[in-house]
Amino acid sequence: MMFNLKTTAAVAVLATFAGTTTWAQELGIADADYSLEALIEAAQKEGPLTVVDATGKIKVMAENFTAKYGIETTGVKLSGQDQEQIIQREAAANNVQNDVFNMSNLPSVTSQILPQGYGVSWFPPDLADETPAQYQNPAITSLNPWVWIYNTEVYGESCPIDNMWALTDEKWAGKVSMPDPLLRNETMFWFNQIETNGDDEMRAAYEDYFGEPLETDQASATAEWVKRLAENGVNVTRSDSDVGPIVGARGQKDPHMGFVSAAIFRDAAKNDYQMGMCLGIKPWLGQLTPRVAVIASGTKSPNAAKLFVHYMMSGEGMGPQLGDGKLATNINTEMPATEASGIGNHVDALHVTDSTTTGDDFDRLLDWQDFWTIHSR
Prior knowledge:
Number of helices: 15
Number of strands: 12
Shape: globular
Strand content: 15-25%
Structural class: alpha/beta
Distance between the termini: 45 Å
Largest sheet: 12 strands, mixed
């Protein structure tokens, strides 16, 4: 299945940094002297490489890169928050051990990692015609879908809710499972993105569900929804891999709703979880979060690092992740037929990060964390 970003709402909504802030810095061979052949030649003269992502598939990507280019490369799985801490600490200590990061927290990257010089964004010049401008500055390798799910054994082909406000109802008290928002900054960033760019949709969804306009003393409809959701006894887990069996295990009478990455549908197929996406839910099926290629500023293998970024941005390097529902930003990349969730057919139902407001997402992270903590007690 060909997933063409030119035809989706993602391109229209994920605004570009091009023409505003330029994150690229000189690293390795200069772009003026660039060709893929020259980069490969320079890269193969350098030492080993360590590459980092939030998925274990980075290990397979590293193995494939080693086989293709003969550069010894090790893949390391680290959470988004751990990645941020490591790239900062290694830069401060002038002791870079991890060379390339595929980072999931775009607001942190654009507000802290790049401006403070911990990392560098580099986009391969020869891939400009294959990658929409929205994904070039900084270099966004892929888009990671997160979706609301339900148990299909109990509820059949139709999700038991069709509105995100239903998750705040007493019926679902203690029966919504999701990774702890305090451990996943992407969720907090999403709350702020919705408030900033989608609050009218949240307010309209409230009126659709309850049949009357929203009256609240909160700053926004989104804040009211987050407050009610937190107060409804959300069952928080360490990761979405814990949510899959809670929602989808067979034999349940009253299963939970859940919030997971599309990758969990791979586990569902393997472990016989009975899971379905809440298609048609208002305002959004879930969120679509970008992942950004960041090269550690002090890497000892700058050209090898750039070659790995090229490998990801070409789409080839992202191959192991496409089967998990990740969407490569290279328009020539095909989604495998074996991808379990079918998310490629529902991208326009997802809320997409607006890159022009990610600075505010970063600035308000602690506010949302405090807000969630207060109301989830």
